[in-house]
Recover the amino acids of this structure.
């Protein structure tokens, strides 16, 4: 695909989101840059729209050569970048004390054998370390952080939320178990693949009853260690295929997904199971693709006017599912 066509596709979707939900972006906002296809697409689109952002990447310390690759990639895009090194932040007195303590605990956990526990995956805690690092940096300037999650990500997190609710409350399982979740997800995916209206309606009912929602809406408003911040997602209305097409057209080598933790591949989070295993199964058929579109439209229709989710499943998971199911709010598994 032509670069201009591919870029315009991303820009149009981002402008639609920013027009509907202006609070997604503020001049000088942080753009969380991983070097993956999605953050490359978002950085390119924001630059094309002349909406100023600060690219920031978080170095977890898993690969010595990673920082150099990210800096070279930003240079190819023609944009400056700040690299936040977790190891440095945990030892820096200028880091907010509460963030520094939490960051040190979570990063140490990632180096422990417990990081590959079936209910506490390294990817969740890697995400938390990145949030802590980005919030600490943003407290010095603009407390708005842009993430490159797109419509496919939003749908994945909604399906994860719905499946966890079904597993806990409809099938009466008190504790999350990865293989059982995968089996349940496959059954639901096969229904959607076949275009089952009953299956679609079941999921939409959970959404309307606030029993399930996406944890990646256009806007989240958060507070961390007394620091308020906003997460914005300008690509909420954009399908993943568009970011793939843009990066291919740009001809740049994107980083692979994931934080680089050695146990990540064998301890997929529920959301990753949905995204990388179940959605491809559903969308192999025309009826499955129609079901996905229907669910995505329902997600957008069930947002608050300001772009936040009607049910904050990230923060209220322990209330929706019970404290024992996949850990309670005080565990390291809890997402910020």
């Amino acid at each position: 695909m032509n670069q201009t066509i591919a870029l315009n596709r991303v820009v149009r979707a981002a402008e639609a989101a920013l027009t509907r939900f202006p609070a997604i972006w503020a001049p000088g906002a942080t753009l969380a840059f991983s070097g993956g296809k999605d953050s490359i697409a978002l950085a390119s689109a924001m630059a094309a729209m002349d909406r100023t952002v600060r690219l920031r990447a978080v170095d977890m310390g898993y690969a010595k050569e990673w920082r150099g690759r990210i800096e070279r990639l930003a240079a190819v895009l023609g944009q400056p970048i700040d690299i936040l090194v977790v190891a440095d932040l945990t030892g820096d007195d200028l880091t907010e004390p509460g963030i520094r303590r939490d960051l040190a605990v979570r990063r140490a956990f990632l180096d422990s054998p417990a990081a590959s526990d079936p209910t506490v995956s390294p990817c969740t805690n890697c995400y938390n370390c990145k949030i802590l690092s980005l919030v600490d940096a943003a407290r010095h300037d603009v407390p708005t952080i842009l993430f490159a999650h797109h419509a496919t990500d939003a749908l994945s997190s909604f399906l994860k939320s719905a499946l966890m609710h079904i597993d806990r409350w409809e099938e009466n399982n008190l504790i999350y178990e990865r293989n059982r979740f995968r089996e349940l997800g496959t059954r639901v995916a096969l229904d959607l693949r076949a275009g089952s209206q009953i299956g679609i309606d079941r999921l939409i009912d959970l959404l309307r009853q606030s029993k399930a929602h996406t944890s990646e809406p256009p806007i989240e408003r958060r507070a961390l260690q007394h620091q308020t911040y906003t997460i914005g997602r300008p690509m909420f209305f954009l399908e993943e295929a568009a970011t793939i097409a843009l990066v291919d057209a740009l001809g740049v080598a994107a980083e692979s997904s994931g934080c680089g933790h050695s146990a990540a591949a064998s301890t997929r989070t529920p959301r990753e199971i949905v995204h990388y295993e179940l959605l491809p199964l559903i969308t192999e058929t025309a009826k499955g693709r129609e079901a996905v579109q229907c669910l995505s439209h329902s997600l957008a229709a069930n947002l608050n006017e300001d772009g936040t989710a009607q049910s904050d499943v990230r923060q209220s998971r322990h209330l929706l599912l019970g404290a024992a199911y996949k850990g309670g709010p005080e565990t390291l598994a809890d997402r910020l």
